[in-house]
Structure formats: C-alpha cells, structure tokens
# Entry
Amino acid sequence: MVKIMQTFMTIQGRHITLDNITQINQLILEHPDWHRTRLSKELCQLWNWRNAKGDLKDMSCRNLLLKLYRHGHIFLPPQRRTPPHLIKRQIPEIPHGTDPISTVFANLLPIAILDARSNKHHHKLFDHFVHRYYYLSFNSTVGENMKYIAFDCHGRPLACLLYGVPAWKAKSRDEFIQWTPTVCQKNLNFLTNNTRFLILPWVEVKNLASYLLSRIAKQINADWMCRYNHPIFMLETFVDRTRFAGTFYKAANWIHVEQTTGRTRQDKHHCIQTSVKDIYLYPLTKSFQFLLLSTSEQTTLKCNS
# Structure
C-alpha cells in the first residue's frame, strides 16, 4: 500500500522522499539500456537496502518501483519478461503410497519433522502433496517461508505445513499486539503465517495435528534464524469457518482473537467478499509484545543479549 504524505511516501516499509524519486528518474534517463532488474539492484546498492542476511532486497525494490510507476511518479523501461512469481509452475506428479494410516498416536513415534528443502525428493513430495490434496491447492511461494514435511517411524509421509508471509493488516491481531500501522509495517517480518496445513487424506491419527503444531512452534525460530538470519516471535493462521472449527489450533494452545472482516489484501475498493476466517495466534516468547513493539534495532539488540 502506498501512503502519500506532504513530502514523502512509505512503500515496502521504506520512506521515499521527493529527492529519491528524482534520483530514480535520473538513473533511468542516464541509463536507458538498464532493464528493471538492473535498475532495482543498482538502487539497492545506492541505498544499501539489504535484508538481515545482508542480501540486496531486490524483490522489495522492484515492487517499490512498480508502485511508484503505477502512481505516476516515475517512468520504467518496458518489461522484458514475465516475472517468475507470475508464471504458473508445472508441479510434477510424484509416485507415493496411499495405504491407510489409522492407528494410535504412539505407534507413529518417533516422528521426524523435516525442512522439505533439505532434500530434493522431500521438496518435490511436499509441493506435489500440497498442490494435489490441499483444498486451496498450491503453486509457489513468495517471500520468506518454511516448508515442513512430517514422516512417521516407518518413513511414511504424514503431513505438510507451510509457514510464509503474514497478513499485512488484521484488526484483531494488531489490537492484540497493540500495533500501530507504522510499527506493524516495521516489524511484520517477525511474524509468519501458517498458510497451509495438510494432514494427508489417508492419515487418521488422533492428536497428530496438535502434536505437529506444537513441535514446529518449538523449532521454527531456530530454523528461521538459520535460513533468514532474523527471529520469529509469533505465529498466526486464518481458519476458514465454513470448513474448519480450528480444533487442532485450540488443542495446541493457539489463541483465538476474533475474525477477519471478510476482505482480501487485494480489496482496495472494499468490494471483494470472501469467507470470514477465525484468527489464531501463537506467541513464541513471553516477551513477544515488547519485541514486536520495539524498533528493529532494539529487537536485534534484545535477541543478541
């Protein structure tokens, strides 16, 4: 969302001054041969715009440039190719067994919950399972995310869970944290959303779902630090009330904080209706509120102390 003020605007969590806009247009005029990717990378270098791992925030910069262009503040060179995230990926079929797994929970132990990306076969299996069996399907991920796949003691796949980009705004969530729009925009990357939770259709085991949620809650912060070099302080999820009762999340001690308004993040003109969803939150630390209300600099110091 572009927020225009008297002398600057805030896009992708970054304050943009009129001088910045002049600088961007000057770069475009001086380098007519640059494509959009080159422009965004050069701009990241000039602004030293990097993520917690020190990598250039190239995708954020491209989104920023596109928003400035759409609002008529800059010109952009013609698009040379379709952005990768807009290309519908072909997810291959992966042979797998579907023999029923219906037993007592203890017979599955020990359960391995793995980062699907750590193994090529597991990664392909994860994508295939969620694409084929999850009711919303799946094609690709955008932004920071973790893919988990769970196996029982016999190596049989049980479930897939995807944690990704949190909602930009959620009234009851933000009130629970006591977030202002400015602080929310600054610290949103310290949350992640459980966007997909799939128990495979042939698996019926009591207490399995809540166990998986609890196990991942204990390991996801360390996994996130390893992959993205910054912590996670809270988990969120949105449960479609027309399909699910949220039983698994309640059993795993997630906190129910009312419902969504029945709008989507693309609903700029308040005309898109979608199903109301229950919002559940899971703080990963007792000091979650202090950390989520702190500036990024204070948060980093707190985590490292």
User: Anything to note?
Assistant: The first strand starts at residue 3 and ends at 4. The chain has two domains: 3-85, 101-304. The radius of gyration is 21 Å.
